[in-house]
Write a structure and sequence with these properties.
- Helices cover 45% and strands 11% of the residues.
- Strands 2-1-3 form a 3-stranded antiparallel β-sheet, with helices on one face.
- By secondary structure, it is mainly α.
- The chain has 2 domains: 8-100; 105-199, Cytidine Deaminase, domain 2, CATH 3.40.140.
- The protein is elongated, with a radius of gyration of 22 Å.
- It is built from 9 helices and 3 strands.
């Protein structure tokens, strides 16, 4: 019969995630300990922290990849039912929105890196392609940000007429087009190059 020594409630109080957060603050907890607080309990064989470590190790300890796990994928882990999976998904989405809110009112686009910081929370964890446009004024401040299209895993269709129609409507003097590759590939596809060429 499995021993219960792995359950968090039997650990010393200093090692229990909730108590560690209460006494020291959230920043002192590992990713696994934070996820353990979210799921609340493990199984008869493993603690919530160990269960969280199993989930993290399945995606090479990459929190962004945890955010990409679907309900079906999460419930494949022994000890994670639908309710726990939903809690994980809700928390990851809340984290994404929190990160987005920190850059939402970025006053000025100064580099491609600043565009990445703004858009990565929106596009970084998607399993489909989306095409977004940032419209700028003459000070490079963002006056509008819209999703122009949403596609499948490998492509999305863009109507350049709509792209420029919106630019005229908001009085933009410049625009930045942004879209993601769910595969993680950094090189533009032939269709990306054609769109850029046709938009000039």
């Amino acid at each position: 019969m499995p021993q219960n020594s792995m359950t968090i409630k039997n650990w010393s109080e200093a090692d229990q995630p909730r108590e560690k957060l209460r006494d020291n603050g959230a920043r002192f907890l590992s990713d696994a300990e934070l996820i353990a607080i979210i799921i609340g309990s493990g199984t008869q064989d493993v603690s919530a922290v160990d269960l969280a470590k199993i989930v993290l190790s399945s995606v090479q300890n990459n929190l962004n990849e945890v955010g990409r796990l679907s309900l079906a994928q999460l419930t494949l882990f022994k000890g994670i039912g639908e309710a726990k999976a939903i809690k994980i998904m809700a928390t990851m989405e809340l984290g994404r929105r929190y990160k987005e809110s920190g850059t939402k009112y970025q006053p000025k686009v100064t580099s491609s890196a600043s565009v990445f910081e703004l858009m990565q929370p929106l596009l970084g964890n998607l399993d489909h392609e989306e095409f977004w446009v940032l419209y700028l004024n003459n000070s490079n401040k963002i006056i509008s940000k819209i999703q122009l299209s949403k596609g499948g895993i490998t492509a999305t269709v863009v109507d350049t007429r709509l792209l420029f129609k919106k630019a005229l409507e908001v009085g933009a003097v410049a625009l930045i087009v942004v879209h993601n590759h769910p595969s993680g590939g950094l090189e533009p596809s032939p269709s990306d190059r054609n769109l850029t060429k046709n938009s000039k």
